[in-house]
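Can't paste images in this forum, so I'm doing it all in text. The chain is below; anyone willing to post the predicted structure tokens underneath?
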Amino acid sequence: MIRFLIPLICLVLFFMEPVFGLFSPLNIGGELNYIVPRFLIMFLIFLTLYYDLKHAMFYGLFFGLLYDVFYIDIIGLYSFLYPATCLAAAFAFKRIPQNLVTATLLTLVLLGVFEFLLYQFFLLISLTGMPLGTFLATRLWPTMVANSIFLVMLGWVFKSVMVTQLSERDTKIGLY
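Text version of the structure:
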């Protein structure tokens, strides 16, 4: 039963993102600020760092494809970016000190790159016409602040789940 914990967490986070997206846009100081929750990609990055790259890329591909089908109707965008972000996290985490603080900072940096790549792609296909300054001020920074609050609150939970799952997998006898 414990082996279904990671997919269950991924599924819950996948369905939590649109619920928290309902709080957006926020009117702060007479300006609309858009917050895009990215709980699943943050969990996938932690899955990459503390569990296994292969599992993270599989879940990234699966949930990226689900995200493409259900939310944006551009098949391939998230199903490419989720595993690519996991791969970048694994590459970068091998070259920096491996602790929770650096994992959190790496996750936030990769989340910023992820959002910027999405913005560039949508700008390329003319799905958005938002200037870069407006994107940075009204979407990227509020998104980064909101997701960093979520990550600071639950980053240690993500890590403890991964470490527990890893120890369970290593002590289990069989073909897991």
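The CA atoms of residues 151 and 157 lie 9 Å apart. The beta strands are 26-28, 31-33.
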